Amino acid sequence: MDRILEAVLAAAKPGGSTYQYYVKNAAWESDLRRQIGAFPEFVVAAEDKATLRAKGVELLTALNTKCKARCADPAIPIAFEAMNAVVEARGWWKGTPPDLLMGTDEDLVILADAMGSIMATIARSTTVKPYSLLTKYLHYAFPNSFAAYDNRVGASVLAWVKDVYGIRPGPNLARQRYAPDVLTTTDGLGYIGILRFFQMFWDGVAAADQVETYDAAVAELQAALDELPGEIELKLNRLDILDKVLSVANGDRKLLHL
Question: Which residue, among 37, 45, 256, has the nearest Cα to 158 in the 3D structure?
Fold first, then answer.
């Protein structure tokens, strides 16, 4: 895990892949993160379900376009309705979901179960699987709770699992915690493995006494973004610089420093 930490810290520095991505995409990232981050408050204040639905679909459509998630437009209202129903049922629009990095394994199961419920609900109405898009939306809405997923993130986590536990499937309970057999599927069943990887990574940062170093890397990147011209209000957190390295690497062992 020390090697992936090295990759994350290096990518956040000027010239690194994470640094370059956020500088290049700061404008739209800032706008959508701000709007989606305020969506829980919008839900509470909304006077009717039609207004709520229209705004949610609008934001999900915009995110789909900017992230190039390729979710078919007719499926976006279905995806929003499913997500809204699950989040509302858990009281998270008015409260807060469990914290990913600081939560217990039970907390991670709660988060993963929510994603599984959303995807199962969607599957009853369409064959489209907007898994990646919805994890990104939920990360923007609850940045300390949900990790953003795409198939490149999945490939990188799977590369780490193979590096640590080998490529043979079997009754290795430690390996199975990361759900390698379904880690990169688009039905959400592998989300628990993604969440456990993020938490395990952070536990490793803490165990290596690198929390201050890691937070300094986030702060330095944040300072650079704050200096960009225009009305940029892009706020990053600990999850963001790890997620971006995993996505850019797309399972490449060299980029992950494995």
Answer: 256
DSSP SS3 for 31: helix
* Lowest mean pLDDT segment, chosen from 68-72, 91-95, 107-111: 68-72
DSSP H helical ranges for the chain: 2-11, 17-24, 26-37, 39-45, 49-67, 75-89, 105-123, 131-141, 151-165, 173-176, 191-207, 211-226, 238-249
Number of H helices and number of E strands within the chain? 13, 0
CB 159 within 8 A of CB 254: no
For residue 25 the two structure tokens come to 């995409």
- pTM for this prediction: 0.94
Q: Alpha helices, DSSP H only, in 68-130?
A: 75-89, 105-123
Collapse the DSSP code of 248 into the 3-class scheme (helix H, G, I; strand E, B; otherwise coil) and give the result. Answer: helix
The first and second tokens of residue 166, run together, are 């080998």
